[in-house]
Amino acid sequence: MSGTPEQIAGWSDVDRVAFRDEIVPGNQPAILRGVVRSWPAVQQGSASPQAMCAYLMGLSQGKPVPLVTADPATKGRFFFREDMREFNFQRRQAALAVALRMLLTHLHDTQPPGIFVEAAPLPDCLPDFAGGNRLDLLDDSIVPRIWIGNAVTVQTHYDLSSNVACVLSGHRRFTLFPPEQLPNLYPGPMHITPAGVPISMVPLQNPDFGRYPRFRNALAAARIAELGPGDALFIPCGWWHHVQSLGTFNVLVNYWWANSNPATSPLHSLLHGLLALRDMPAAERAIWRNLFDYYVFQSNGDPVAHLPPAMRGPMGAHSPELVREIKALLAHELSRP
User: Fold this and answer.
1) For residue 330, what is the enclosing H or E element?
2) What does the pLDDT average to over 286-294?
3) Most buried among 107, 136, 234, 285, by the most CB within 10 A?
4) Structure pTM?
């Protein structure tokens, strides 16, 4: 990667109040130095891969975990195959013991296969984990997930939730891009994705600027953080992030949570917009952009403040009854050929 990206701001001795009142409202990524250093899992993870595996296997075992594997030729970079019709990795369910044994078996290989336990919900696979390893910054209702792997790379992507990612073992390098860098990141297809959201088509290392010239602008806005055991990273909703595991054994626990509870999926609204608006003449699209800015994004304040509450209809407060009516109308409309 060319240039020297800006370092993400670091915070020390962060408590729940500072996280809630200062960090989250700022909507900027933040390194939370040492925030989980007291976890028993971090103590074992700092000792050795073998100690960490023994600790995890000493906890009660639950359901199988999602296990992702890739040929050594991929060098741990999970991505599309050349024709983009398939991925260069395979997924299956496996017992945690199987995944850990694979990682230890290939620990000292010069060209190991990519091995990755992906976002396994801890209450399902390790139900006793949270009892001794609790993140005080967040509500206990937020489900933690565990990621265990070797030197793998997760391609640049975004999440539609906020995230705190805690490093338990090994080191990880995070490269983040603000949401507005979307055009410069050259997103891949929406209908074929590794994990539900589009990924950037540009490799962070040795990007092809001839093919992806705007990526230079994304790099100019990039921010970077390198985390070790006990550190965590707050990633606000919508921030693109590239995650590189730097060692032969790495463990991370993350927490995703939504900042809102929409009545329907915003992604479905985007798909509806593609059907309804994208192919209009430019002048008509401009009219609809203005309507969306006014009514949905409220670029000029409350669009119906001048109307009596009883006359605001779907533009006003959404009662459960009104939500049902709007959904029924949309369902009827979308059912038409």
Assistant:
1) helix 320-334
2) 95
3) 234
4) 0.92
Helix axes 40-47, 49-58, angle to 10 degrees: 140
222, 174 Cβ separation under 8 angstroms: no
Compute how many other C-beta atoms are within 10 angstroms of the C-beta atom of residue 306: 7
102-111, 225-234, 310-319 — which is least confidently predicted? 310-319
From first CA to last CA, the distance across the chain in angstroms is 48
Q: What is the DSSP string of 116-130?
A: EEEEEEHHHH-TTHH
Answer yes or no: is pLDDT of 2 > 70: no
Q: What secondary structure letter does DSSP report for 159? A: -
Confidence of residue 3 (pLDDT cuts 50, 70, 90): low
**Is the pLDDT assigned to residue 231 strictly greater than 90?**
yes
- Alpha-carbon distance of 88 to 93, in angstroms, equals 17
- Interval 202-221: pLDDT, tens: 999 999 999 999 999 999 99
Polymer length in residues for the chain: 337
Distance between CA atoms of 122 and 147, rounded to whole angstroms?
10
Tell me the Cα Rg of the chain.
22
Q: Name the percent of the chain in helix, strand, coil, to the closest 5.
A: 30, 25, 40
Both tokens of residue 335? 């059912």
Q: Where are any strands of DSSP class E within 144-271?
A: 144-149, 153-157, 162-169, 172-177, 223-227, 232-235, 240-245, 250-257
Distance, CA of 27 to CA of 157 (rounded, Å): 17
Six-digit token pair at 9? Answer: 């701001």
List, for residues 298-316, the tens digit of each pLDDT value.
Answer: 999 999 999 999 898 888 8
